[in-house]
What does this fold into?
Amino acid sequence: MSQEAEKFGGVIGRSYQDSKPWIVPEPSAPPGAPNVVIIVLDDVGFGHLGCYGSTIETPRIDALAASGRRYNNFHTTAMCSPTRASLLTGRNHHAVGMGMIADWCTGYPGYQGQVTRRAATLAEILQPAGYNCFAVGKWHLARLRDWTAAGPFGQWPLGRGFERYYGFLASLMDHWNPELVCDNHAIPTPRRPGYHLTEDLIERAIGMIGDQQAAAPGKPFFSYVALGACHSPHHAPRSHIDKYAGRFDEGWDVARERWFARQLELGIVPAGSHLTPMNEAVRPWDSMSPDERRLCARHQEVFAGFLDHTDQQIGRLVDYLGERDLLDNTLLMVLSDNGATEEGGDFGDANIRRHYQFLDEPLEQKLAALDRLGSEHMFNNYPRGWGHAGNTPLKWFKMHTHGGGVRDPLVVHWPARMKQGGLVSAQFCHCSDIVPTVLEAVGVDAPATVQGVEQMPIHGTSFLHTFDEPRAPGRKKVQYFELLGHRGIWADGWKAVTHHVQGADYESDRWELYHVDVDFTESEDVALRYPEKLRQLVELWWEQAEMHHVLPLDDRDRQRILFTYKLPSRQRYVFEPGMDRLSVVAAPPVANRSYRIVADVELAADTAGVILAAGTRFGGYVLFVEGGHLVHEYVGPDRRWVLESGAALAPGRHILEFEFARHGHGAGTGTMLCDGVVLGRIEMRNMWPLGATAGGVYCGYDDGSPVSDRYRCPFTFTGTIHQVSVELADDQLANPGLENLLSISED
It folds into this structure.
């Protein structure tokens, strides 16, 4: 008898008259189970929200806090992918294979770059329990090499329990011209006037809920809304940016002091707490020139506008739920995935691609971009001083295990359950505690197996009891931290933590000790006063590290990308017109090597358009026809290299080529040909040392952010493209700052 027949619960006779049918019952949620909405902000520090002390206006989140609850002792893992893995599974990030962001994982058990099937996501648990599950926005839980049209798709949202998805798989995205995915396929970039990604994501979240409720009114849903805001690039409507003009001219030193005073007044920081000293890596505001201060102030105006705009969009979702009588029984959480960042350096970045490729950005370039920060023409990030202010009153930044990296805002709103609004709950809690809290609220137990796979235990601890008893003692006993060699552990109100210097001996790291139950800001290191307590905590850290697959310790950051993105061995790529976007990770790796673009096309007298485009205006190359002339444009870190044919191309069928011959690190000669005849040459230098493209590949059109400013997308080719190929030479040079690129090939 087949397995299907064994599961059949009726009776089968010779005819239907002597048979008894049986229909597999649809799963149904427990009576009264709430809807669940989890909104994840990106790179928003402990002190960034208005209800957590800042002067940035976030009235809609503040209103949720006023009728709900703020947690001032909520912790994350200090970086995005690890936090999201822990948040969605209820387990520690190393234990599920996401000890570092998905892009930088190295193949050890704790660093797989994808979440093990032994740790089901909240969607994989709630869907069989009668919920519909939707995800919008940032995913960043699949290995870099899997972000292609060939998948594999098992670690994409639809492969991990979500029934609908709209968003982006990567760590960050252009909010004006995003490259998006719907379910399991790439989609064109939206082109409506005034488009902004945050608005789009909220509209999609509303649409998914509306569609579901129209079909099954009252059926509970889980909506995971992972916004790209406020991760760089900081993109916001000009009106929101200009609203903050002049508000940050006094600088980050003053801002930290004022925000700390507000935190004490609001009660989000306990009375008697101390503001930690300015981080030694942050330049004092008064030490900078007037131009430098003007630049830095504008960066913060842009960030404030970005967060302000995001708050308004969250308000639209809340309004929708309220108008449809869904808000009262919706467990809604707003949180950030890690602390504010220092990645913008002393003066911020106009194009953060330079930072990710180990390239400095001259101050004059930063100043020249000042009036366009936040626009579609910039890929900007603010200075580390503003990141430090965003983490007020705590030390250090995102990617550190001190408070500035791991302590983040958490607002919980559930009118049907929370009867006391506006209170601050001080219980220690962690992103791994979200899943057990939701499951207890819903009335669903964590399953022992999911789709036949035995599950590891839930590591988190529910804090649902604090909804009714906001000042009740917390139930969590211990939580370790580790990222990039930085380490920390909290247990029973004490925290041991070490700030690791990359390349240093781990045994030489100095452990600090804080009694955080009475020293909220980690301001007084008592390691010398309580050496035995410190020794116990350090030993406990090593026990937790072995238990949860933290080892081996690894303090490399961007260098690790080469273990996740394996260079393809093939040397020829063939493209056809009209194809969907080819993911940037599947693009021909032309950086720092010789290559050739060959296009077999037919032209008319008025033919124009893109033949092949790879990347965006922030990094890439494009071959196109304009005014009868063949043009190749390469967008480098410092300038655009443009080669254009002197004479118009004759109508007819032609083989058009662009050849690049590398003759040094980031330098070479570009040659343009038509039917083997040289049309021109150009010497190029200071090119991108690693990835040459900041976006995907398109054949016969361009999408997203246009590679060239000489046309507007999609600039579809009006002639006929028979085929375009990119042929790669075997002379690629590694970036000296990274591992040996040439030694890594496909598995």
Q: What stands out?
A: The longest helix spans residues 290-323. The chain has a mean pLDDT of 95. The chain has 16 helices and 29 strands.
